[in-house]
Design brief:
The protein is α/β, with parallel strands linked by helices. The protein has helices at about 5, 20-30, 40-45, 50-55, 70-85, 95-105, 125-130, 135-150, 160-170, 195-200, 210-215, 220-230; strands at about 10-15, 35-40, 60-65, 90, 110-115, 155, 175, 205-210. The relative contact order is 0.15. This is Orotidine 5'-phosphate decarboxylase.
Length: about 230
């Protein structure tokens, strides 16, 4: 894999509070990065207009809103994401929500991603939440539903990427958070992997937040991760 290919597969998580901080990171990264993730933290602190601004500047935006509501509300939310200019949008992988999202996005270039099990959760967390299944079992069930409903891909940890790729084939996206370069701390993530390991397992896109946005020089940190990805 070359650097350009790696650049198309690295998503930098703008997990910051406030538009000014996010804009400063985007400026510092320049042409090094072509994909950004905007989630709740930034969206709820004035950053939602950045979706359209980044899209107009030639960037791709992964809008990580994890939609889950009644079907009509999910449909309207997907329509709004399309108007903003998002390239990817997350939906919690409940069948009714995924069906509503697929209906709303039909004919558009928006890639819908089913969130299987958050990378900060493990089997104990699922048991505490009332699930009788293990992480692996629940991920497998939700991945199969996402595939059959017509979603564009799924969000899952690198630990499940290989099994998911076998289940869904080569076309659907597998977006993996919980990416930590060699030597980085795991933080609050419980199912993590290096960039090379995640790509080797079948991930199509890697989401990297704190190791880049929390670095003293985000551009240098991003370039190091791209180089690590290019060797995969």
């Amino acid at each position: 894999m070359g650097i350009e290919d790696a650049r198309d597969r690295l998503i930098v998580g703008l997990d910051v509070t406030g538009r000014a901080e996010a804009e400063a990171i985007v400026v510092s990264l320049g042409e090094t990065v072509s994909w950004y993730k905007i989630g709740f933290q930034l969206a709820l602190s004035g950053g939602l207009p950045l979706v359209g601004e980044l899209a107009r500047a030639g960037k791709h935006v992964f809008l990580d809103m994890k939609l889950l509501d009644i079907s009509n509300t999910v449909e309207k939310g997907v329509e709004s994401a399309l108007e903003l200019g998002a390239s990817m949008l997350t939906i919690h992988a409940y069948p009714h929500a995924m069906r509503a999202a697929v209906k709303a996005a039909a004919g558009s270039p928006l890639t819908l991603l089913g969130v299987t099990v958050l990378t900060s959760l493990d089997d104990g967390d699922l048991a505490e939440s009332g699930y009788a299944k293990s992480v692996a079992e629940l991920v497998a069930e939700r991945v199969a539903q996402a595939r059959d409903i017509g979603m564009g891909g799924v969000v899952a940890s690198p630990a499940e990427a290989a099994a998911i790729r076998r289940a869904i084939g080569p076309e659907m996206a597998i977006v993996t958070p919980g990416i930590r370069p060699e030597g980085s701390a795991s933080g609050d993530q419980k199912r993590v992997a290096t960039p090379a390991d995640a790509l080797g397992a079948g991930a199509s896109h890697l989401v990297v937040g704190r190791p880049i946005v929390g670095a003293s020089d985000p551009k240098v940190a991003a370039e190091a991760i791209l180089a690590e990805m290019a060797k995969a």
